[in-house]
Design brief:
alpha+beta; 29% helix
C-alpha cells in the first residue's frame, strides 16, 4: 500500500536548529501510484561547510495547469448516518464535523480498473529455493504448499519469480498466513494490490457493500480472503474478485464500492470572547489578503458566527479539497502526491517546481523550520519510521488534529480532511511512525 522511500535522521519536534548544523533533504524517485515521499533528511552537527546535497533521480513534472484542474467527486450513500462531533475549543474557535465518504467519478474508476482477473505474486531478487523457504514459513496446508511450490507453474524472470495462484488457492490461505504473505509481497511495487490494498473502513465486508448490487458469490469471496493488519480490515485480491462478477454492471458496482474514500465535512464556530484570537489563527500572513475580508464579515455576527471550514482555507486548498486529480490533463505523466499537496498549502497557485526533488528540497530548506507542538494552520507534518528514520507521508495541519491530506498518488485518491490519528494508523499498519512538524517561516 505504501512503498518504501527514505527520510533519515529527522530532527525531533523538540530539537532546536544549531548554527553549525546542516540538513540534507533529498527526494528520490517515487513509486507507481504511491504517496510515499522519497525524501532523505540527514541532520548532523558537523560544520556547515561539510554540508552537501545528494539528489537521486526524480519523476517527471506535472504542469501547473494539470495540478489545478481537479475532477469533482460524486455523492455516495454512507453505510450509516454520520455522527456529528464537536471539537475542543482552541485558538481556531471550535470545529463541528462528521465523517462521510466521497466516491471517485466513473471515468476515473474505469480508467484505473484491473486489466486482468489473474492474481500475481512477485518475489523480487529471490531464487527458487528462497521462494520455497518463504512459503514454507507460512504454515500452509500441505497440499496448497506443494501446489504453490511447483516450479513448472512459475514464471522466472531476471529480476524475480512470479506465481499465479488460482482463486481456489487464494481461498485455501489461512488468514494469519495471508496477512504475513501479503505484507511480504508489499515490498515490491510489482504487487500493486498488496502494496496498496483496499481498506474496508466499516470493518465488515457486508456493511461496506451495503447499497451496492453485488452477488453473494462476490461477498462470500471477499469475506474469506480479507485479512487484518492491526485493527484494519484489508483486501488485496481485487483482480480475482472481479472474475466473480457476472455482468459489466456488477463489475462496475464492485469498483464503485472500493472507489470510496472517507473524509470530514466541517464548520467552524466562533464564541464572542475568542473571536479576536480566532481571527489571528485563520488569517495567516500567507493567506490573510484572501481570507480576512470574509472572516471579518463572519465575526461581525453577534450570536451566530460560524462558517464552513472550506471558506477559511487558502485559495488553492479550497479549489482542490474533495476533488480528484484529472489524469487526462497530466501531459507530463506526473501525479500530485502528499508532499506536493502539503508543501503547496499556502501557495495561491501550486509551484510546479515542487514536483522536482531537488527544487522541492531547496524550497523546504529555505521556507520551513522544525517546530514542536502545538501545531498551527499549515504546518507540514512528516510521518517518519522510528526504526529507519524514513518518511512515508506528509500532510498539512488545519486545527484540532484535522489535517489536509492526499493519501496516495493514484487518481483514485482525492484530497480530503482526516483526523491525524486516522492518517497515522494507515501508515502504522506497515511502519512504526513518529510525526515531525515543519512550519513555514514568517518572511517567506
Amino acid at each position: 500500500m505504501y512503498p518504501k522511500s527514505p527520510l533519515r535522521g529527522m530532527p525531533s519536534a523538540s530539537s532546536t536548529p544549531h548554527s553549525s548544523s546542516f540538513v540534507i533533504l533529498s527526494f528520490s524517485k517515487l513509486l507507481r501510484n504511491s504517496s510515499i515521499l522519497a525524501l532523505t533528511l540527514l541532520v548532523s552537527t558537523m560544520p556547515a561547510e561539510a554540508a552537501r546535497m545528494t539528489l537521486p533521480p526524480f519523476s517527471p513534472l506535472v504542469s501547473l495547469k494539470d495540478a489545478t484542474e481537479p475532477v469533482q467527486s460524486s455523492a455516495t450513500t454512507d453505510p450509516k448516518p454520520p455522527e456529528v462531533i464537536l471539537s475542543r475549543t482552541g485558538p481556531w474557535g471550535q470545529l463541528e464535523y462528521f465523517e462521510t465518504f466521497i466516491q471517485a467519478p466513473e471515468d476515473i474508476i474505469l480508467a484505473n480498473q484491473p486489466h486482468t482477473t489473474k492474481t500475481r505474486w512477485f518475489f523480487g531478487g529471490m531464487d527458487a529455493q528462497g521462494v520455497k523457504d518463504l512459503l514454507g514459513e507460512l504454515q500452509l496446508p500441505q497440499g496448497l504448499e506443494t501446489a504453490l511450490c511447483a516450479e513448472d507453474s512459475w514464471l522466472i524472470e531476471p529480476d524475480g519469480i512470479n506465481l499465479y495462484p488460482s482463486s481456489a488457492q487464494l481461498l485455501e490461505l489461512p488468514e494469519s498466513s495471508r496477512a504475513q504473505l501479503y505484507r511480504t509481497l508489499s515490498r515490491w511495487e510489482q504487487n500493486f494490490y498488496h502494496l496498496e490494498p483496499e481498506l474496508i473502513y466499516t470493518g465488515s465486508v457486508r456493511s461496506w457493500f451495503k447499497g451496492f448490487d453485488v452477488s453473494e458469490a462476490v461477498l462470500s469471496f471477499t469475506e474469506k480472503v480479507s485479512y487484518k493488519l492491526g485493527s484494519t480490515l484489508l483486501f488485496a485480491d481485487t483482480p480475482a474478485m472481479l472474475d466473480f462478477a457476472e455482468t459489466e454492471k456488477e463489475r462496475l458496482e464492485i469498483l464503485r464500492a472500493f472507489g470510496r474514500t472517507p473524509t470530514l465535512m466541517a464548520k467552524v464556530l466562533f464564541e464572542p470572547g475568542s473571536r479576536k484570537e480566532a481571527a489571528t489563527y485563520w488569517s495567516k500572513p500567507f493567506s490573510a489578503q484572501d481570507i480576512l475580508p470574509f472572516l471579518e464579515t463572519v465575526l461581525r455576527h453577534e450570536n451566530s458566527a460560524q462558517t464552513d471550514l472550506l471558506h477559511l482555507l487558502p485559495a488553492n486548498v479550497r479549489k482542490i479539497l474533495y476533488t480528484y486529480h484529472n489524469p487526462k490533463t497530466s501531459l507530463s505523466g506526473y501525479m500530485p502526491d502528499c508532499h506536493w499537496t502539503a508543501l503547496n498549502f499556502f501557495n495561491a497557485e501550486p509551484f510546479e517546481r515542487l514536483c522536482e526533488p531537488a527544487k522541492a528540497t531547496s524550497y523546504t530548506l529555505a521556507n520551513f523550520t522544525p517546530v514542536a507542538p502545538p501545531y498551527e494552520l499549515g504546518d507540514v507534518l512528516f510521518f517518519t519510521d522510528t526504526q529507519t528514520g524514513d518518511a512515508y507521508h506528509s500532510c498539512a495541519y488545519i486545527a484540532d488534529d484535522v489535517v489536509f491530506t492526499k493519501n496516495g498518488r493514484s487518481p483514485l485518491q482525492p484530497w480530503v480532511l482526516m483526523k491525524l490519528d486516522k492518517v497515522k494508523a494507515l501508515y502504522d499498519m506497515h511502519f512504526h511512525t513518529n510525526v515531525t512538524a515543519y512550519r513555514r517561516k514568517p518572511s517567506t
